[in-house]
Amino acid sequence: MTTTCTPQEAAALVGRRDTIGFGLGPGNPDAFLTALGERDDWENLVFGGALLLGYYTVLTKPGVSYRCGFFGPAERVLLAEGHDVELVPGGFRQFAPILRRFAPRIMAAQAAPADASGTVNLSLHLGATRDELMRAGTDPDRLLVVEVNPHLPRTHSLPPRFDNTIPVDVIDVLVEADGQPYALEDPEPSAPEKAIAERALQFVTDGSTLQTGIGAVPNMVALALAAGDGGDYGVHSEMFTTGLMRLHQAGKVTNGSKGVFDGVSVTTFALGTAELYHWLDGNTEVAFLPVEIVNDPTVIGGNHKLVSINGALCVDLYGQVVADSIDGKQISGVGGHEDFVAGAELHVDAHSLICFPSTVTTGGTVRSRIVPLLPEGGVVSTPRHHTGVVITEYGAAELTGLTVRERARALADIAHPDFRAELHGAAEAMGRL
What we know:
six-stranded mixed sheet; single chain; 23% strand; alpha/beta; 433 residues; 26% helix; 27 strands
């Protein structure tokens, strides 16, 4: 039987020693997590989740730990403050089996309220959690907590094969909430980012299928395509953004010849402006599918003329990409980075674009993001054999099919001019060892 209650009443059902799982970003049950912070009696409360969109005080309490699959600003702050937050390495596509092994007693999610069919809608996040939500709801020894919020859109999936709803009669605890969903405004691009976006556009042609990550460069590419003369684009993207909405609104997305899920844009979560969330409500042009489908490289590779646009923190002359940690500090996570990079390189008409400014300033010192070798302790997000095209404000290095030394030379060519001589010297020594 489903019990409807307040966030505080739901928090009271959690044991002092307990385990709780929740989804990434827009899947965070905000009111429930906030209410848990009002208690101070925890002995061993363990959370499993990713990409918090709020700073939840429960994670600052003694006796509480957080196993995180993808860091965002909140995780970085919590870790810097000395709280018990640890990364669980794994791509987004691996979250489902990791969660299955963790098997938390309590699974929690946020959703749009039930409709006439008696189901709540998982709204902005399907990701890797629905199967575990259903398992928790049908297991008498576990607890399914679903936070419903009338401000969340009801999004579309592709039934009967894929379903982004949960029957109300499976839910143990229904929490009523009323907060506005987290809005991510479009970032203001820097001059180097504008130049990078212009170079990335050269790889997009009519009929391309697009995957865009978070950040100013992917957003600028989407906006430029929306304003441009081309069209007949498709969308197959882990994250659905405000920029991709603009592309739809401009009439440039047809999804007519992708080769995979023709006729609809596919994604597994959405993060953007309040306008985006309103646009997604009841919109059948976008389908939310499980991450194990959206991020499967063999599915990704089935798209025609795929262009994958992602960022990086550092690349060495071998083409090894560091995208989620730097100088021993965890910045984000693997996410779908490697999956889309690998999938985009399966066909000659596809391109994986790794985009980043050529330098970064730390502690008043300007450093090159292209380096001869990764520093000791550098953690590779994407291996060299998957890296296709690397773009800075100084050019694009197309690495596929090049030798070790040719790749190194091409990367040195697009580095900041102040660092090119050193990098070219290192490049000439490579491939001879």
